[in-house]
Amino acid sequence: MAPIKSIIFGPTGRVGSAAARSAKHYGSQVVLAMRNTQKSIPGLSPEQEREGGYERIEADLTKPDTVQAAVNKTSAKRAFIYVDFTSSDYMKSTITALKLAGIEFVVLLSSWSVKGDAKAIQPGNFLAWTHAQIEINLSEAFGQHGFVAVRPAWFASNALWYKNQIPNGEVKLAFPEPKVDWVSPEDIGELSGAFLTRGSQCLDSTDEANAVYVPGPEQLSQRNAIGIIAKAVGKNIKVTQVGEQEGQEVFVKTTGLPERLVKQLLLQQKTTDKEGPWLFVDPHYETALGNIKKFLAREPMRFHEWVEENKQEFVI
């Protein structure tokens, strides 16, 4: 029996790279769909790429015609995709292109913010709304069992938002104390690649059978996380709490993230600061905490382990 052919969009990202390597590990033939086919893939050397029989093709999720052409040319049957926040139709055109080109199953990098009935989520919550609309479009195109939404919580790699402040020996934050989970992007990607190869049959038969929540194993504040980073890079880093407006301005300036997204993130942090860590009392949390071990048969990566592996990323 010929191996399943899976196409990975965004393989130069941390999650996409891990998804590609994982899909290969679990038996897929892997196509790397990239805007720039000359870019290197994190964690995958040219030698490993050749030996693994990976195939590169030019494609851009924001351009549905390139998506359809890439799938047609490679005859891929399964696809890993991520959210395009700039899409005016919540990726409906891209999803349609995948379907028309012959994709049968999709793994979406979604968000923990999507809970319950996706159609009930209101547009006031930008993060949840955007991810939910894309999940709805996937469901309409592929059916409930034709896709899996991987819903991680707070990425460990979000710590790289501090990178441009670290050289000053001070990180300014509006809300340094709320605790988050710090899930490794590599864990998210490995899980995604496993689902891509195995398909939806490996999931439970529940109301949200095609949604998998993925929290990290930690309960660490940003302040404590910065302490771990400081130890790893051998530098004293002071954490200074600033007002919400200044925190927003610093966040936008030092990360380059859109102001709308920064406002949503700070609102989430502000709510957590006042009401406590919502994630750890979420009804999905306790069960989801075991998903890495359940599906990958290993423990999730701890934050200090992720920082140690990526400490050069924090050095400018």
TrEMBL record:
InterPro entries: Ergot_Alk_Oxidoreductase, NAD(P)-bd_dom_sf, NmrA-like
Domain NmrA-like span(s) in chain numbering: 7-275
One Pfam family in the UniProt entry: NmrA
Coiled coil, from the record: none
Record-given protein name: NmrA-like domain-containing protein
Source organism of this protein record: Oidiodendron maius (strain Zn)
